[in-house]
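Morning F.,

Quick status update on the modeling queue. The single chain you submitted on Monday has been processed. Sequence for confirmation:
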Amino acid sequence: MFLAAVAAAGAWGFVRGFRWWHWARLIEDTPTSRVRSAAQGYVELIGTGRRMAGAPVIAPLSKLPCTWWSFTVERRGRDSKGRTKWQVVNRGVSDSLFYLEDDTGRCIVDPEGAEVLPKATDSWYGDTPLPVAGPPSHRGFRGFGSDYRYRESRMHDGDPLYAIGWFRTESNVVPGAVDEEVAALLRQWKRDNSMLMQRFDTDGDGTLTLPEWERARIAAHQQVLAERRGHAAEPGIHVLQKPRGDDRPLLLAAGDAPKLARRYRLHAVGGLVTFVAAAAALAWLLLNDVL
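Structure tokens below.
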């Protein structure tokens, strides 16, 4: 068991160390783009996090409004030697969309699969599987004797937001054939027969002749083309998400790029130190015939 633990720690340190180093290099080497002029592909954006219209995003434990959240609930227990052990009994992470906004526009952020470094993190204790109240104002409270430990991280509306991920723009050009839209519009007009007669029954006989019906079809065709031109003139919808089929990350942080890069470099150093220490421990055990 000891050998397996040392080997697992070394493998974890090696893999995570190089991954974090790669992420730090990505942050440093990717130039910052503006939402309006960003190229399609992997980009870095800096702006402000904003909630979308509609139902608010509410953090499950604190009940605070936010743009993103994650939480963990742990229960106190005992291991085989009677020592205190915390076991995760519930956890979750938000997948709700929100905006990144800069001085040129805004894009939708899809946080699914993202590595998130939030601004606010709270940890507190209680005696129920879900807290009956939010985090206490007194941070010295350690929850001695409490059965549950709660941890929640959040990003809020108005927080500064750094993001690097896959940027794409969905065009407002309406797909499909024009003739299909014309036929659908004519069917809609036929359901309101009085309107149809008023507009196109020029001889007033209560029915549409072939020439009158042809005028209705031309009018429907012109309306469809006008609506399509209007949609095409509107700006497209920008989306930032995790790359598909790509090992590059979607990183979201309530901070700036230099601090984020330094943080991942420190993580990388820690991971590689763990690998070296584990390798040295295994070598010592083998050389001294402990195994």
